[in-house]
UniProtKB/TrEMBL annotation:
Keywords: Decarboxylase, Lyase, Pyrimidine biosynthesis
Annotated ranges, domain Orotidine 5'-phosphate decarboxylase: 8-224
Residues noted as binding substrate in the record, renumbered to the chain: 14, 36, 63-72, 118, 179, 188, 208-209
Function: Catalyzes the decarboxylation of orotidine 5'-monophosphate (OMP) to uridine 5'-monophosphate (UMP).
Enzyme Commission number, as recorded: 4.1.1.23
Species of provenance: Blastochloris sulfoviridis
Name the record gives this protein: Orotidine 5'-phosphate decarboxylase
Length: 234
């Protein structure tokens, strides 16, 4: 993959206000160019902010994890495409993925299918009434996403190699649950270090708390970019 290491790190702006997100983007300006806006910031003005970041030349991942009736998903996806963001997430259910692909149309927006959340393990799947292990479920969803024409997969880096074998070289593999050595797991269950994620075939690494809650976010981001670069060079 020819994308520079600093473009492969996606910083999750999981903060309560646009003001705090702006401070982080400013602090990280020399280190990172790709930012994720998720549910917390989205409900606090983050969707408009996503459009502003994209207009300012940053890469933006709008993480809304859409899942609804097809008509609603298709129409919401069309509006997201107008924001100029790069990635939009939907849950990896066939009807939902088909609707998002229809809504994306021929725009530059890329649809990412969220498979089994990285905060889940086999027990959480069983509790939700879903049969099969995490590995089996992610594999099934990845095959369906490819068949439907989705642009990328969100999974734990632990599944990245298996997913790559299923979807081939063209779909983007985006992996949250990244934890540098010594970082707290928090609520994540399927965690992998940055270098191991790259070696497993992840294209993009999503990192929130290990950067945004660090005493020096720029230093934390630089260390991860360094790990990505070193692992990608091997
Ligand atoms: O879609 C996502 O980005 C996502 C999928 C998933 O399975 N797990 C997951 O953690 N995420 C997101 O990735 C980010 C991870 O944040 P940290 O755990 O703080 O690094 C959060 O913003 C999550 O919403």
């Amino acid at each position: 993959m020819l994308v520079a290491a600093r473009e492969r790190l996606i910083v999750a702006l999981d903060v309560p206000t646009v003001g705090e997100a702006e401070e982080l983007v400013e602090a990280l300006a020399e280190s990172t160019v790709f930012y994720k806006i998720g549910l917390e910031l989205a409900v606090a003005g983050g969707i408009e902010f996503a459009g502003e970041l994209a207009a300012a030349g940053y890469h933006v991942f709008l993480d809304l994890k859409l899942h609804d009736i097809g008509n609603t998903v298709e129409r919401a996806t069309r509006r997201a495409a107008e924001l100029g963001v790069s990635f939009l997430t939907v849950h990896a259910y066939p009807q939902t993925m088909r609707a998002a692909v229809a809504g994306r149309g021929s725009s530059d927006l890329r649809i990412l299918a969220v498979t089994v959340l990285t905060s889940w393990d086999d027990g959480d799947l069983a509790a939700a009434g879903i049969q099969g292990s995490v590995a089996e479920t992610v594999a099934r969803q990845a095959a369906q996403a490819k068949e439907i024409g989705v642009d990328g997969i969100v999974c734990a880096a632990a599944e990245a190699a298996a997913v790559r074998a299923i979807v081939g070289p063209d779909m983007a593999l985006v992996t949250p649950g990244i934890r540098p050595a010594g970082a707290a797991k928090g609520d994540q269950k399927r965690v992998v270090g940055p270098a191991a994620a790259v070696r497993a075939g992840a294209d993009y690494l999503v990192v929130g708390r290990p950067i945004i809650a660090a005493p020096d976010p720029k230093r934390a981001a630089d260390a991860i970019v360094g790990e990505i670069a070193a692992a990608a060079a091997i």
